[in-house]
Amino acid sequence: MFRLIKGFWKWFRTPSRIGIGFLIVISALGGILFWGGFNVALEHTNTEEFCSSCHMNDVVPEYRASPHYLNRSGVKATCADCHLPHEFIPKWTRKIEAAKEVYAHITGKVDTKEKFEAHRLEMAQREWARMKANNSQECRNCHNFADMDFTQQKGVAAKMHAMAEKEGKTCIDCHKGIAHSLPHMQNVESGLKPQK
Residues that bind heme 2, according to the entry (predicted)? Predict the structure, then answer.
């Protein structure tokens, strides 16, 4: 028995080239499978179906009534298009932040329409601040001042877009509520909490 153990440790300390090659191949395949599975899971969390699993009774009906869902051009912006950066690090940062939102739903903080409405302003302000901080990057992936033909826009829109570009404003400064209902905003400007 002692010889068997001693032989195993000798073999273990001096593995063959075949053993090392096998270990490298298995590790590489395991890494590829892990990364592929991880990306599939990540992409699933970017789908409208995933978002709808929690938001079917609150924001999904609003979104489906908006021009981001159904419009004359047939171009549709999904939840991830507006709420998730495309770049790797910002995307991961936002995914980690979103995990807190999923946790809030699972623990019952916003699991009903009534509870969601009670926290809508707080959640909206957090999202507006995020969009303001990144210059409405997700909006600008599709809508960019440099690519706009103001002569093709209605008079008021052309004037407002030209002024916003000149003043360095970002999309969210004017377009709050474009895909979702606005929260109750009374007394927000004065710094007071909204009335319920």
Answer: 79, 83, 180
Q: What is the pLDDT of residues 138-185, one digit of tens each?
A: 998 988 888 889 888 889 999 999 999 999 999 999 999 889 999 987
Residue 151 is classified by DSSP as: G
Residue identified by tokens 């892990």 is 34
Which residue has tokens 């959640």?
123
CA distance linking residue 68 with residue 74, whole number of Å: 9
Which pLDDT tens digit goes with each residue over 4-19?
888 877 777 777 777 7
Is 119 labelled as part of a ligand binding site?
Answer: no
> Is 171 annotated as contributing to ligand binding?
yes
62 marked as binding residue: no
Q: How far apart are CA 52 and CA 178, in angstroms?
A: 18
Percentage helix, strand, coil, to 5, in the chain? 65, 0, 35
161 is in an annotated binding site: no
The pLDDT of 90-100, averaged and rounded, is 89
Tokens matching residue 34: 């892990």
CA distance 68 to 78: 8
Residue 138 labelled as part of a binding site: no
The model's pTM is 0.73
Q: Is 86 annotated as a binding residue?
A: no
* Residue 117 marked as a ligand binder: no
83 is in an annotated binding site: yes
The answer to whether 126 and 178 have CB atoms below 8 angstroms apart is: no
